[in-house]
Specification:
By secondary structure, this protein is mainly α. It is built from 14 helices and no strands.
């Protein structure tokens, strides 16, 4: 398994370089260094000398190939440097945002996983009945609603009308729970439809396998078949979907954090894009790619831990 992980890590290097190169090119096309300099300088009409001085301070006066090699070396060493807009160390801003994003992500992840698996098991148990029919219809309905509608509707109904939760804001420490409950509820409700449909399909496929028919023929009850056999053998696709969703949750939901004023990594990314802060943008894209690769490797490792038939070679 160790050799497999090492190979996957080595294969990840070209992916990181490719993603960083694409980000580098797209940002230069959308926002040339001179435009970033004029936007970040405090003077309303900066002189050419001030623009050139800003470019030299941030290393944007060198040829593009030299800049990319320098940026790529720093990224691979996780030396993100300082923000182009504020001059603040980027790692400090990431440390400030990782706490709120991790809190919301962990709540959404565990509640969504438990709710989705439980509902999928219920629909599979009552397959072909009205419970299955109306449950599937509700899942399709939830999948058809825009994420933005869930956010605005949740804020209006649960925050403004019923006043169960604060509309927006964040408080660090023990008082953070009341500000993250509403984003958690919206994060779960907006994703539960597609997850339940996927898990229900997986479990129904497992229920048509020979080992399930053999267990029933031996007199094993339907509940025991479902929870003891079907759920265990359906764990691989469940793990795949769950683990691969972690990097996106940890990086923060851009819409969720923006609407609720949560100072997480999603908000940091949006602010960097709006202020054309290329240093922060490339750091966040690189960090997101690393987290996705780690999630993919953890998914493969979990296969071998859950199913002894799987071998990592």
């Amino acid at each position: 398994m160790l050799s497999y992980v090492i190979r996957r890590v080595l294969f990840a290097i070209p992916i990181l370089v490719g993603v960083s190169l694409l980000t580098f090119i797209l940002f230069y096309v959308a926002s040339p260094p001179e435009l970033m300099a004029r936007r970040n300088l405090s003077a309303r009409n900066p002189t050419p000398q001030q623009v050139q001085q800003w470019l030299e301070q941030h290393g944007y006066d060198k040829p593009m190939d030299v800049q990319f090699r320098k940026h790529m070396t720093e990224l691979l060493l996780f030396r993100f440097g300082k923000s182009d807009a504020t001059g603040e160390p980027i790692w400090d801003r990431i440390r400030q945002g990782v706490g709120p994003s991790s809190l919301v992500a962990s709540l959404v992840f565990f509640c969504l996983l438990v709710t989705s698996v439980a509902c999928a098991l219920a629909l599979a148990f009552f397959r072909g009945s009205y419970v299955d029919l109306w449950g599937t219809f509700l899942c399709v309905l939830l999948m058809s609603v825009s994420y933005l509608v869930f956010i605005i509707g949740g804020q209006y109904l649960l925050g403004k009308i019923l006043k169960y939760f604060p509309l927006a804001g964040y408080a660090r420490g023990i008082n953070a729970w009341k500000f993250v409950l509403l984003p958690m509820v919206i994060g779960v409700v907006s994703r539960v439809g597609e997850n339940v449909r996927f898990y229900r399909t997986v479990m129904l496929e497992e229920m048509n396998q020979d080992y399930v028919r053999t267990a029933r023929a031996k007199g094993v009850g339907e509940q025991a078949v479902l929870f003891r056999h079907v759920l265990k053998n359906a764990s691989i696709p469940i793990l795949t979907r769950a683990v691969l969703s972690l990097p996106f949750l940890l990086m923060g939901s851009i819409l969720l954090e923006s609407f609720f004023g949560i100072p997480g990594l999603g908000t940091l990314t949006v602010d960097a894009i709006n202020s054309q802060d290329f240093a922060v943008v490339r750091a966040m894209v690189f960090l997101g790619t690393v987290l996705y690769i780690i999630g993919s490797i953890l998914t493969d490792i979990s296969y071998a831990l859950v199913d002894p038939r799987v071998r990592l070679e």
